[in-house]
Specification:
Pfam families: LacI (PF00356), Peripla_BP_3 (PF13377). This is LacI family repressor for deo operon, udp, cdd, tsx, nupC, and nupG. It comes from Phenylobacterium haematophilum. The chain has 12 helices and 12 strands. By secondary structure, the chain is an alpha/beta fold. The protein has 3 domains: 52 residues, 434 Repressor (Amino-terminal Domain); 131 residues, Response regulator (Rossmann fold, 3-Layer(aba) Sandwich); 130 residues, Rossmann fold, CATH 3.40.50. Strands 2-1-3-4-5-11 form a 6-stranded parallel β-sheet, with helices on both faces. A 6-stranded mixed β-sheet has the order 7-6-8-9-10-12, with helices on both faces. Helix 9 links the parallel strand 6 and strand 7. It is elongated and about 85 Å long. The relative contact order is 0.12.
Length: 335
């Protein structure tokens, strides 16, 4: 097997220059870099990244854990993570925790064993395995949370203002004339569900409609939206509008509306949350809160790289912009 010395000799440069071509190519002149890469191609040289990891104590890998890999929202965030990590020269290790604490702990152990340089977790729990690391390292802890903002976790994060977004949804529905509004939340152990519900209640109180508000708990899935919306529609005071805390639940709720012999939005208006790519192709097109999913993925990687490169001296918690997208699924209530 050709060695780094063989490449250096063939290209007429030092072994240090060859090493820099792979570790910090921006520091090498374009002509020199091209000579080295031509020598690499001629000799069939492959860098020994395992040996490099032992020397630098860096793996150039980022571990990302996601609560539900089948959720289209998370797939967009992961795509953003992958794009930003690849551009920075990092590989991504992906773990689907399926909302299970045991799986979260297993992946956290990989970080403790230094099998990855940093962790991005898209759920709401900080594994117990990492609590002491956060306490000891503070803002320098190579852990970033995406999507779910909980300041007491003590880690860097990127998210939207879920409370403000939910208030905008409710203001939109009340502005159309709706009084009886049904809300299907996500699991209330989730900070984003709690924040969205706080926004719902604040708007209801501001509009004087707290008594007419109907709240039921879901789990973000299509099936949950179907079953919980059916329960709302069977009640005596059937809501004229339903706000779901995810687009997937809104898709299930739309089917529940159809099964009840009703038409959206003539009989029941419907709002989702996330703006996954299916939202605008439903019939009717779904009114929803658009989250910057790709941008969240890019931002969590930026935050982690700042930590890994020693640029983070304070805890960074970034709030990204959201947008209420009004489509055909909302209209004034029936007379």
């Amino acid at each position: 097997m050709p060695t780094i010395q063989d490449v250096a000799r063939d290209a007429g440069v030092s072994t240090a220059t060859v090493s820099r071509v792979f570790s910090a190519p921006d520091l090498v002149l374009e002509g020199t870099r091209q000579k080295v890469m031509e020598a690499v191609a001629r000799l069939g040289y492959e860098p020994n990244f395992a040996a490099k990891s032992l020397r630098t104590l860096r793996t150039e890998k980022i571990l990302v854990t996601v609560p539900d890999i089948s959720n289209p929202f998370f797939s967009r965030v992961i795509r953003g993570v992958e794009e930003a990590a690849h551009a920075a020269g990092y590989s991504v290790l992906l773990g689907d925790t399926r909302h299970q604490e045991e799986r979260e702990e297993q992946y956290a152990t990989m970080l403790r064993r230094k099998e990855a340089d940093g962790l991005i977790f898209l759920g709401h729990r900080l594994p117990d395995t990492l609590v002491d690391m956060v306490a000891a390292m503070g803002p320098r802890t190579p852990i970033v949370n995406g999507c779910e903002f909980a300041p007491d976790l003590g880690v860097a994060s990127a998210h939207i203002d879920n409370t403000a977004a939910a208030q905008e949804v409710m203001d939109h529905l009340y502005g159309l004339g709706h009084v009886r509004v049904g809300v299907i939340t996500g699991p209330l152990a989730s900070p984003l569900s709690a924040d969205r519900l706080a926004g719902v209640r604040a708007a209801a109180e501001r509009h004087g409609q707290t008594a007419a508000l109907q709240v039921i708990t879901g789990d973000f899935s299509i099936e949950s939206g179907l079953h919980q919306a059916a329960a709302l529609l069977e009640g005596e005071n059937r809501p004229t509008a339903i706000f779901c805390f995810s687009d997937e639940m809104a898709m299930g709720a739309l089917e529940a509306i159809r099964r009840a012999g009703l038409i959206c939005p003539r009989d029941v208006s419907l709002v989702g949350f996330d703006d996954i790519r299916f939202a605008e192709y439903l019939a009717p097109q779904l009114t929803t809160v658009s989250q910057p999913m790709d941008a969240i993925g890019h931002e969590v990687v930026r935050l982690l790289l700042d930590i890994l490169k020693g640029r983070a001296t304070t805890l960074q918690q970034v709030t990204l912009p959201h947008r209420l997208v009004v489509r055909a699924s909302t209209a004034p209530p029936p007379r």
